[in-house]
Amino acid sequence: MKVFKTVVVIMLVCLMFTGCNSQNNLRDLSIVEGIGIDYTEGKTEVTVQTLNLVKEGSGSEALSQNVTLNTFGSGDNISDALTNISKGISKKLFFGQNRVIVFGKEFATNHLYENLDYLLRSSDSRADILLCVADDTAKSVIESKENDALVPAESIASLLITGEKRGFSARVTTNELLNLYADKTSDMYLPVVKCEKDKIAVLGIAIYDNDKLVSILENNDMKGLLFLKDKIKSGLVIVETTNLGKTTVEVTKSYSKSKVKFEDGKITLYEKVKANVTLNEAEKGIVEPITDNDIKEIKELTEKEIEKSCTSAFNECVKHKSDCLRLGENLAMRNPKAYSALSDNWNEHLKDAQIKIEVDCSISKINEHSKKD
Asked: Rounded CA gap, 93 and 31, in Å?
């Protein structure tokens, strides 16, 4: 399927340039799939992943392994570095197919704000490009072979999209990031990835206070943030039960609703989380039949686990004065007068914010021993 998809993409690109943009010959272009941006010793360093349209071999042989090239360049800013890359390969970079931009840890921590103008105004940027932060350098992520994926950048993009739905990543586009930053009280957040043995994995979610990266939410805090933002559509929750031991519950559907109020001198988030879950597997499920009392306990423990994750994530954001949950925007819709009074000094009010959460799970089991037939 991936081979077919790549072939179709290449054909579409060829057709596009023989039609609307016939003055550009495909052989004179480098089709960008992913960009990595680092900052080292006063220079912006960019690694570009492009399609290798002249890969040796033919047919399925040519598309049996990685079909990309990685090129490195540096400059005074992102545009300068990209220009130098284009000069070095003697081809024009085409960004219409770019899937992902990876920011190195140093760049994301200390230099993202001063380069937001590139994301906002450059013709190279697009509103739907996925963004993430590397635990180390962006170069190491872009150059990862991703288990010899045909197009590693496409594999990284799929990881971010799928990961958000399952509660272990975040899908943030250029447009979403800029909207978060432009809003008076909202703050940015980005998924954090790391390269391990030529395979990309999600480490957590970086949260910002204005232009400063202030914390990285991991594991249950990351999952809690995604529940609060109504992003999770599936995934696993593990609880420890009395009779069955460690038990895995699978979320099959989830819905979250947020309402922010200002009462008793505090910003309060009222959160309702509803989830349909399935009893997937129990440590002692083979030995012990699963009773109605067990189901009731698992339901209660699952609700408490989700509540715990959401509360912990909320408190972590509040502690670091990061409004990536868009509490201010929510309050502005419901109580413009209160928002107007608080927004000029939002961070000081945010640090005392509280959450009141209600979680309701509907649970079902597959069979008496919780194993799928």
From this structure: 6
3-class DSSP assignment, residue 353? coil
- Measured from the Cβ of residue 13, the count of other Cβ atoms closer than 10 Å reads 18
Parallel, antiparallel or unpaired: strands 130-134 and 189-196? parallel
Q: Residues 342-362: pLDDT tens digits?
A: 999 999 999 999 999 999 999
User: pTM to 2 decimals?
Assistant: 0.87
Q: Which residue has the tokens 């590139």?
A: 118
CA-CA-CA-CA torsion for 217, 223, 226, 228, nearest 10 degrees? Answer: -100
Nearest to 131 by CA among 190, 50, 45: 190
What's the one-letter identity of residue 158?
A: S
What length does the chain have? 373
Would you call 215 exposed, middle or buried from its count of C-beta atoms within 10 A (0-12, 13-18, 19+)? middle
Amino acid identity of residue 66, one-letter, is N
Structure tokens at 231: 């992003």
